[in-house]
Amino acid sequence: MVQLADSSCRHKKTPLCYTCCSTTNTRKAQRCKTIILQKANKGKSNREIASLLGKVPQTIHTEIKRGTVRQCLGKGRFKEVYSADYAQQSYENNRKRSVKKSSLTKELKEKILHYHNQKFSPEMMVMAKGVNVGISTIYYWIHHGKLGLSKQDLPYPRKGKALKKQASTNFKPAGQSIEQRSEAINLRLENGHYEIDTVLLTRAKNYCLLVLTDRKSRHQIIRLIPNKSAEVVNQALKLILKQHKILSITADNGTEFNRLFDVFSEEHIYYAHPYASWERGTNENHNRLIRRWLPKGTKKMTPKEVAFIEKWINNYPKKCLDYKSPREDFWMANLNLKFSVRNKSRNRFKFCRSFKYPARRCSWC
Q1: C-alpha to C-alpha distance for 153 and 158, rounded to whole angstroms
Q2: Is the distance from CB of 270 to CB of 249 less than 8 angstroms?
Q3: Who contacts 238 (Cβ-Cβ below 8 Å, separation ≥6)?
Q4: In the chain, where are the structural domains located?
Q5: Helix ranges, 118-200 (H)
Q6: How far apart (Å, rounded) are the C-alpha atoms in residues 359 and 344?
Q7: What does the H/E/C string look like for 232-276?
Q8: What is the pLDDT of residues 62-96, one digit of tens each?
Q9: Which residues form the Integrase catalytic domain (predicted)?
Q10: Which of 22, 59, 75, 232 is most solvent-facing, going by the fewest CB within 10 Å?
Q11: How far is CA 49 from CA 32, 62, 207, 270, in A?
Q12: In Å, how far from its chain's centre is CA 222?
């Protein structure tokens, strides 16, 4: 029996058997305690017991001190003895108290769930909405079920990395290739350069979304169209051009974009390589924001709901914009005010150049 307990724990300088035996081999831990009980009752010293178990004497001393209880002998007499059961119970109670109390309060949980229902990611909850907790902590709570959410409830559940398909070397785009795009567009130096794509609601031939994303400000334009035909796309773009200034357009090689030259001049149209969606990464990432509200398989959609999603995305803070929203970045960059803020009150009855009505009614002026 002594020989068996001699190899029961490999941690020589830690409390007896609690590091490995209590979690992976409780039976060995109990045998070690039984040996200590037997040898202590026979009057063996701590050093002798330690040599039998292959431990240091201090470990035996700590274990006996932890499990020492007072035994009543009758007539008011007591004796201090070692109890293996009491030692184990004391260890388990100490382990429960040693765990740090969770910082997840009821109010904090309600706040996180509130922003989650508004489709905010954990990073935006912390950086833009003032949730006073670490980003990784929120992910930890989600993965361990402390918020009543699962991994699939996250905006972008982590998946395995897919292999990227390489573009064909003999591809000839219908318009200009994306390789001919100017550095001003590639470096996002000015507003007005858009990436375009369509988002299908279902596989059936019904309504879909026409999505345009400004490369610099990430300003989003979303329109509901009845189908993906080139004629319908061009009609929607002509209406958009009456409200927004588009300097260039970058599209994929879908058939819905093969007649963009009917709306734009050819020098302002650029086509990405086949199977190279990362060349329009800004547009593709914003399509994921749309999917937060419209998961695949959505059958019904109204223009009012599309307008709400467009407004939500344009007011959603972005890390690349220093946690400002696209609306703030887009409109502030396009406002060319004649007077400085210092002279604003002096000219409050002037007309706003951007909104065409008195500046006193313009929240930006």
Answers
A1: 11
A2: yes
A3: 263
A4: 2-98, 106-153, 176-328, 336-365
A5: 122-127, 135-143, 183-186
A6: 9
A7: HHHHHHHHHHCCCCCCEEEECCCHHHCCHHHCCCHHHEEECCCCC
A8: 888 888 888 888 877 888 888 888 888 888 888 88
A9: 169-334
A10: 75
A11: 10, 13, 81, 82
A12: 24
Burial of 53 (0-12, 13-18, 19+ CB in 10 A): buried
User: What's the token pair of residue 126?
Assistant: 């912390």
Question: Do residues 145 and 129 touch, judged by C-beta distance below 8 A?
Answer: no
Q: CA-to-CA distance for 111 and 106, rounded, in angstroms? A: 9
Q: How many CB atoms lie within 10 A of CB 343?
A: 11
Chain length of the chain: 365
Q: What is the pLDDT of residues 96-127, one digit of tens each?
A: 887 777 888 999 999 999 999 998 999 999 99
How far is it, in rounded angstroms, from Cα 307 to Cα 300? 14
Containing 72, the helix (H) or strand (E) segment is: strand 68-74
User: 162: which 2 tokens?
Assistant: 């897919």
Q: Of 3.40.50.150, 3.30.420.10, 2.60.40.10, 3.30.70.100, which CATH number belongs to 176-328?
A: 3.30.420.10
Whole-number pLDDT of residue 356: 44
Q: What SS3 state is found at 361?
A: helix
CA distances from 96 to 101, 299, 334, 361 (A): 10, 51, 59, 62
φ, ψ dihedrals at 41, nearest 5°: -70, -25
Token pair recorded at residue 64: 């006996």
Indicate whether 291 pLDDT > 80: yes
Spell out the residues 6+ positions from residue 192 whose beta carbon is closer than 8 angstroms to its own.
Answer: 214, 245, 246, 247, 248
Lookup: tokens for 185: 């567009």
Q: What angle do CA 120, 213, 334 make, to 5 degrees?
A: 100
Cβ-contact 305, 205 below 8 angstroms: no
Do 340 and 332 contact (CB within 8 A), yes or no? no
Q: Which two tokens stand for residue 199?
A: 């988002």
Mean pLDDT of the chain: 78
Top-confidence range, 10-24, 64-78, 316-330? 316-330
